[in-house]
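Bit of a strange request maybe. I'm writing a small parser for structure token strings and I need a real example to test against, not something I typed by hand. Could someone generate the tokens for this chain?
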Amino acid sequence: MCSNLQMSRAYVFGSPHTTLSNPALDGPVTAEVSDSQAFFESNSSVRFPSNNWDSKVDALLKQMTLEEKVGQMTQLEIGMVCSGKDQALQIDPAKLERAVVKYGVGSILNVKDEALPVDKWHQIIGQIQTAALKTRLKIPVIYGIDTIHGVNYTQGSTLFPQELGMAATWNPELMKRTAEIAAMETRASGIPWNFSPVLDIGRQPLWPRFYETFGEDPYLATVMGVATVRGYEGSNIAAKDKVASCLKHYVGYSFPLSGKDRSPAWIPEIYLREYFLPTFQAGISAGAHTIMVNSGEVNGEPVHVSRFILTDLLRTELGFRGMVVSDWEDIKKLVSQHGVAATEKDATRMAVMAGIDMSMVPSDYSFSDHLIALVKEGSVPQARIDEAVRRILHLKYELGLFESPMPDASVKANFGRPESRAVSLQAAQESITLLKNSNNLLPLAKARKILVTGPTADSQISLNNGWTYTWQGTKADLYPKDRPTILRAIEGKVGKQNVTFVPGASLDKEVNIAEAAGAARDSDVSIICLGEGGYAETPGNIDDLTLSESQLKLAEAIIATGKPTVLVLVEGRPRIIARIAERVNALVMAYNPSLEGGQAIADVLFGDYNPNGKLPFTYPRYANAQLSYDHKIWESGDTPFGYTALKPQFEFGAGLSYTTFEYTKLSLDSSAMKQNGELTVSVTVTNSGRRAGKEVVQLYVRDVVASITPAGKRLRRFAKIHLEPGQARTLSFKLRSADLLFIGRNNKPVVEPGDFEVIIGGLKDKFTLQ
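Reply from user aminoacidic:
Good idea to test on real output. This should exercise your parser:
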């Protein structure tokens, strides 16, 4: 990368406005129109709280020894202060004394495998803070946790669809509400710092963390990311229902060339700035207090040692003022994995000087020992230590930890509220995406005789995926018994006597396919539930996106019976289904809808809920023919010289309904837009069907001619609307010249005059930027 390149702060979608206060947490999320840009502009520009902690931080910093400062920069995992694991986890007084009193450790994180009850969290964190209060300066410890789709490491919490499923709702107000609930329950657990949201862009579907992203489009991911940050942080992170957020994994982590976790990414800077930075820039503008760093490397340079990425770009260009934390053991990996440092001591110097403020060490004291030695010998200046510690202390003051370090027992009432579960069900329902419905097979009549088959049919693990009660989410006995799987929810709809269940296959092995096919012949319709189990990070690496042979064979056997078939996909990434996709009668994409997902899927299958989810990524047809929706326009057609067009299985933004929507009267208020001007785009959408439904209105813009080959189209606005049968609504969107920016040849944002095309619902019109 070149270090002399700049990014305009204007290259964020939208403009700054005052932040709205949080809505009430009661009841469903409803709005006549959920407009992406109105939401974004109301939530995207946030200043740090007006309460100035600088004087207190400076006064405290002056009293601290070098050892105390370096201790604040050290983060250890919970096993460093505890003995035992799972539900037998207990504070070990000797370990705690060494960590908090002797080394003055500033932060502790994680669980020891299993989610803990709220009371257990209060006990453990209370003991940690009691030890901190016995130290010379009484600096509280900041505890951090991965609240990924709700408080997945506290028992009895409200869990929501994974980020990819939330993106499929295209509903930022709903995303914000789920983040508010997650923040409330995280703080109720006694934990003030959340390692979320993931703002990596999901443009490499093989990547095992794909389901943790908001999909492939920077604008959709930006709007949903801002919603998440605002939901977590609100206007005051010291509040009893708020936490500090952490944008991750800055930057380029999600686009490894191999598709494997924590492996090298090769991203030209022009694309890094075009596609991968906007989400982080928007998260920073939305007020996010911390950032976690990409564990991998970009263009041959580990991000943990890139001063350009961590300081020049992040601090100077993007204006980030908060605290930067490493990921798990990543300073050590500069030696063991990346090979850019000969010793861990060298790696420590390189990472700290690049811009790491806190090291997730996390299982020894090597970082502290090395950094103290580096400062004493002059290899790391004291000023850099003070800079990092100032940011850490500032965060602790803003979180109110100096005033109230102990978990607050009074807020436990906020935990696991019934109304929160209702929001989870709404989120699952809105995420479900109907991708095929030949001859209106769906919704199913409840009087039919039904076969349910497939490995995800009776699995809460599949509905939730990783980061659920354990890191990998694979301990079935930890899941609540009162939340139905797909099978149990279907039985609840039509009666157990009308449902036959034959597994047919496991995720990777044939079980009783012939028996399943026989049951299909005796049934009116078969519901085939396929997909994935639980996985997180590197254990989720695979070599082929194609769905397992056992599952494909099961589907083919059921299809061969000639009876109507419904395919339900429960998966964290798009597994290739080309062999069966054209042969099933209906296809439902469920993502990982979480604990309420079984009920939500059944609601959609039987018509008790009208589906309105839209794909947040392009679903590939072939494992080696992947593309994103914003590909070059010539990639969409065959050519006379032998190029074969890339044709996905399903397009980005696709999703059917049980009603129909008609788009008419696309109009622009002018045929020309001036530089720094505005253009109003209007379109009328009518519910032309027989039942009420929600529609996501998507506005795309195509730059007809540009100095950098333009994309076929780019998403620039969207709005989710509810329409009764026969109801029409005219929507207006404002486009600005800033929406026509792209990163040019010199890696700087440019706006070029010329013709542009607006595309909404199959309608097109043109305007000229003057």
